[in-house]
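Exercise 7. Predict the joint structure of the components listed below.
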Amino acid sequence: MLSRNFRASAIHAVSILACALLLAGTLACTHSTSSQQSPEGPVRRELTDDAGRRVSVPVPTNRVISLAPNLTEIVFAIGAGDRLVGRTTYCDFPAEAKAVAAVGDTLQPSLERIISLQPQVVLISTSSQLEVFTKQLQNQNIAVFVTDPRDLDGVFRSIEQIGLILGHTQQAEQLIQNLRDRTRAVEEAVKGRPPVRVFYQLSAEPLYTAGHDAFVTDLMRRAGAMSVTADVPGAWPKYSNESALAAQPEAIILPTGGSMGAANSTVTEALAKSSAARQGRVYKINDDHLTRPGPRSVDGLEAMARALHPEAFKQ
Amino acid sequence: MSITASGFVNSTSRQNRVTLRKTLISCLALFAALLLSIVLMSLIGSEALPVRDSLCALATFGASSCGLSQDQFDILFQIRLPRILLAAAVGGSLATAGAGYQALLRNPLAEPYLLGISNGAAVGTMIALVFFGTNEWTRPLLAFTGALVATLAVYRLARGRAGATPERLILAGVIVTTFLSSVIVFVTTLMDATRIRSFTFWLLGDLSGSSKTLLPVAITIAVAGTLALTLNARSLNLLMLGERDAFDLGVEVGRVRVVVFVVASLLVGSSVAASGSVGYVGLVVPHLARLSLGSDNRISIPAAALLGALFVIVADTIARTIIAPRELPVGAITALIGAPLFIYLLKRA
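Solution:
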């Protein structure tokens, strides 16, 4: 077993090295991998996904389906868009993605169409319907891999894992390096500046915001903001109008203009007279950059930091 | 609820006077309780406000801030009070509509939610939201249309050769409800993904979006609708004996039916447009009113309106504070309180 592992590691020396470099410390532990070269089939590799499951995937995977827009963006960003044989109706970026066959939406994909597209791996971001779904796909010899980034580090991990599955480790590494550099630049710029107290308005009527578990809460923190709802349990809680006003946010962020279109482009009635609104500190930021944990999240990070700390970015 | 024929037919003028006095006394008592609950519940919320200053500001109707900060004043008068008033309007409307349907259809289970009439109003509101998003006035208008169409559909379906038996009516309600639920699921699936979440919450009944445009509409319709049905209470009393008997006693059955259908649809439409489908109010509250004050509609309809307002105000206070600063849909609370209460009332009656 040991020697077999060793041999496989030699074959994948480059990828393992890249992986080890990127996954310093604890992260590496979650990625205990073992590869097996079966005599007749392709190389398979066992990876631990974000649901804690050990998933055996062919390396490299040539036919993959993504069931979330952020995962589709990652596949294209590492230059593996040609491997994508299926996507959801929400996957509208990059433009090339729209040419790929749609298999339904994230919560209601068509199992029949997925199977008929003959993927080797299906990437999903939610484990809510996992059980039935996985069982049926496994019967068809299709691996289901959950990747559900909760923060920016999670995004980097997802990129790295998808790179590993699709055999694009180098491009993945470059992308992560680039995103890390830009993230660090933002964090450097806002460092030492007092964090701006922000209210994140996901929708106005009824009022929804970003809670403790939301991806964007981490993004706001990195952008030099402090979400006034950062400690509220859950990812997207329905929030009290009066608590939003009483929190006295200094700025309000409206995710809008992307997939949302013109929706959510005005401040909720309860906050219309808040000091943030009166002073014009209401910032509309492309919702796709804030709500899809993917490569463009760093665009959202930069946009928020520039809006909240304009003086930090004066050249 | 059993309705004895003698109670209505043999009512002499002397008994009438007693009824009028009884009506006035009980309605005044309930109205006082309603006012008290409006004041008390506006002191409770996810944010704590100084009680003395808030009471002082409320006593001056907002003319003086009584030492409340600007934010506290806005919380009290811009957020909390409008929401409580909307809860009162919605509760009053739904309870009155329920009492009206129950009397006209001679069926203790007739209720806007169970008969699919709320769903009809919800479909109307959805159409308004999708096609006339910014124009808030279209919402109650189309909700009213939806409620009226659903009412007529249920009534037509329920009417067999033997008239509308209670069982037939409920079955017709189930059919209309499930059909319209499918329509709602169909439209939400087609709708923008980002709007589905807020919409499903709204469907369960949500008072947080108390819009400044719809609040006066909801209050006006609640008051006018209750008055209209109360004025027809005498005819409704006679109708509870059966349509033929009522007709023989000089009731214009057709006219009363049209009045109840239109008024109840208006009541349901305006409350659904403002707050989604809040269930159980139209069922539990009229029963409570009849059990405590008797089944004479002249007293039970206005009493149901006031009790309904009280019930939804309390339910919504729970909904907005129990997991504060997060919120629950008020429909979940009315159902949680309403279902056990209804079972208790049935067992007792």
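Discussion. Chain B has 15 helices and no strands.
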